[in-house]
Amino acid sequence: MLGGSSGERLCTPSTSAGPFRIFSVAGFQNRANDIVYCPPIVRQQSQHVEDSKAIIYFGGDVQDFPESMETNRDSRGYMKYNLENSAILLREAFPRSHIIVIRPVRMEFKTFSCFDNFVRGNNAGVPDHTPMNHALQHLEKLLQNLSQRLISIPENEILDQAAQAAAAAAAVAAAAAAAALTLSNATVTSESSSSSSTGSDSSQEMDIDILQVQENVTVDADGAVIFPIVSAAAAAAAAAAATTETGASTNNVSASINNGNNKDAAAALNSHQQESHSQQQQQQTLSKAASPPTTNNVEHCNNSNNSNNDCGAVSQATLPTQPQQPRPATPTSDNNPLWWRENLNLDKSKLVLIGFSKGCVVLNQFIYEFHYLKTLTPDDSSMCRLLSRITDMYWLDGGHGGQKNTWITSRSLLETLTRMGMNIHVHLTPYQVQDDRRPWIRKEEKLFTEMLRRLNAPITRHLHYDNQPANLMTHFEVLQAFCQHVHSLNQQHQQLQQQHGGNNEQPTTAAATNNGAGSSSNNLLDASEEAK
To answer: Which of 27, 230, 252 is nearest to 133 (CA)?
Structure first.
């Protein structure tokens, strides 16, 4: 499992706004989940923790970390919707919210998402819903411990890693631009020259791939970030890619480092850098990234888990495109890029629960537990605070491998859900509700939607891509359609506020969806007929 032993904890920030991987976050009793987290990118006007919002996302089959998806033949084609990209997509739709993507505790055959910590299921993740599986308690504990883990990471180390990632991204962009220019020139030259340029372009693509996977940062048990050598190697690879001969040999060294041969690879890199020192002097903007002393220090950093400050200094020195910038010794609330950590207490935030495909089984289990807590154990007030903070629930093209219970159809359960007053949203594609091989999905979704409407629940329903053939790609693309829908509602709300002289603060999800509820009522009726 990525992250090594239970004593190792990893996070991988690509910028100071994430996404971060936080491994083995403790929950209820002995349960734990890996989490991908993105902080808000737009600051709320209100500083009260109760006014903050957390988006909780449960993904579907196939969705995993990109390196896991890349090694699976069936998952590789859907890399665009890996868990980190999904977090970024949600962040764009909810820029004022904390984004929390909960990774399944099991990925059977690297394909089937199994959320055992929330709902019992078989090896394919087909759920076995029970009145109480402590899924809500697990979610509350995850939010509490995630807050503590995020606060415990030293601020300067997050910012240093963010600077490295920004420089690596700039190097990737430069390499891509150089590759595109080489390819463009090749089309107007002779065939032999074109062939040579193609080889050079292939080398550039290799550099890009190496850089893209070298952003891991280890967080030790005390919360300190330990910088690996991969960022420095990536920077060296990007620097050497600017020259033909140097680029080819550095690629091999960087690839060796990626494969875990750190000591030998570092020595090879050191030797290579001494041989090409005269060439690198001509590259004034890149020479710092590949000097021999830096290589030795990076090797030491990789072999010593206690040299955090030295590692951070070395990594910062190896950036090829971004010079060191002084930071205030004591950043204030106004200029601190990590303002999102102030008063961070995610379990006290307003909660929006989103399930996509297989992830909807977790939302269904929550409904069972709502009913248990509100009806079967009404005197138990231990979860009342958490339940009162759930404002919205989104079902995005729900489905699983079983032949029943894709959607909740029990009237008593849906009555309890309605009494809780949260906004309910259903987004669908023909892949799930127009598949004649699985007619129970269409029937159950129709019962779920129509019963909630008859109970006067605040529900909206949207059928996307209804004019396109049903296929797995449009099933995944419902994520984009849903995020675009939320973004459009927010823009409409902001325009209305500007027209009426109100403030420009982005609406809460509940307000935004209520604004759209009236306009979508006719669509809801039409969609119900389509689901027959």
So the answer is: 27
- Is there a domain that residue 384 lies in? yes
The average confidence (pLDDT) of the chain is 73
Asked if 147 and 167 sit in the same domain, the reply is no
Tokens encoding 439: 């007619």
- Could you say which of 241, 268, 298 is where a domain stops? 298
Residues 414, 408: Cα–Cα separation, whole Å: 8
- d(Cα 229, Cα 261) in Å, to the nearest integer? 11
> Do both 82 and 169 map to the same domain?
no
| Residue keyed to tokens 């959607």 | 407
Here the tokens at position 425 are: 């949203």
Identify which of 302, 145, 143, 296 has the alpha carbon closest to the alpha carbon of residue 218. Answer: 302
Q: First vs last Cα of the chain: how many Å apart?
A: 44
Q: Please check whether residue 393 is in contact with residue 353, taking contact to mean a CB–CB distance below 8 angstroms.
A: yes
pTM of the model: 0.66
Tokens of residue 396, six digits: 């995005």
pLDDT tens digits, 382-434: 888 999 999 999 999 999 999 899 999 999 999 999 999 999 999 999 999 99
Which tokens is 223 given? 């919360």
Instruction: Check pLDDT > 70 for residue 218.
Output: no
Tell me which residue range forms the domain holding 117.
9-152+342-530
Three-class DSSP category at 20: strand
Say yes or no: 400 and 456 in one domain: yes
Nearest of 424, 465, 472, 464 to residue 448 by alpha carbon: 424
Domain count, the chain: 2
What whole-number distance in Å separates Cα of residue 135 and Cα of residue 296? 49
* Structural domain includes residue 310: no
Look at residue 326 and tell me if it is in a domain. Answer: no
Please state the φ and ψ torsions of residue 107, each to the nearest 5 degrees.
Answer: -125, 90
Cβ distance 44 to 349 under 8 Å? Answer: no
Tell me if 458 is assigned to some domain: yes
Q: Are strands 53-58 and 350-356 parallel, antiparallel or unpaired?
A: parallel
For residues 430 and 470, give the distance between their C-alpha atoms in angstroms, rounded to a whole number.
Answer: 5
